[in-house]
# Entry
Amino acid sequence: MDHKKLSGKIALVTGSSRGIGRAVVERLSREGAAVVINYLSSSDRADEVAAAITSGGGTAVALQADVSGIEGIQRLFDKTLEHFGRLDILVNNAGIRITRTVADTPEDEFDRLFAINFKGPFFACQQAARRISDGGRIINISSAVTRMMLPGYAIYAASKAAVDQLTRVLAKEIGERQVTVNAVCPGPVDTELLREGKTEAQLQAMAQMAAFNRLGNAEDIADVVAFLAGDDARWVTGQMIHVNGGYI
# Structure
């Protein structure tokens, strides 16, 4: 008998060819879910992740889509349903970070960040609200910076705060179908995205702010996502789950 918690489930994870997204699809696959690895341009990486999961006995497919706009999002959902026939778990992970002061933020950067970090999750949630299976799971990746006052993080933190509010409202809107909607809010996680533009001294200073004196790793986040995706989290919805090792 297969005792894996997510056997028979279909999971779509946006931006999952690397970093936290990759750790999430790998973790969900180990729990028995068939996974859709979404990517924008890193086809080699996405295919590598899919091949590794398949060679380990899992089921995975890599699908290209630009999730910063409605057309790409709808096509991604269409392809997922064409391939697997259903969708049970959506993880909105795709995102970018731009750090600029409010005084120095140009309009094009503002629009690009909000398109990927909030417009994308919003319309993916819209598709899921219409098409995810009853009893499904929607998990948005937010950030611990929404609770901080970090210079240079205004537009990034604002985009993630918008995701948090989307999570709360959607949980009430589709709760009658027993679909849970939650957000996972990581602190600093040792990924390519975090390391961009930072020195080792800066990274070490961030690590020392955590209770465990280390940066998070992608698996720390993926484990919590896997919990929220399973039946053990059936009574958890509309919540911001802070996964940051005591960072704040």
Observations:
- The mean pLDDT is 96.
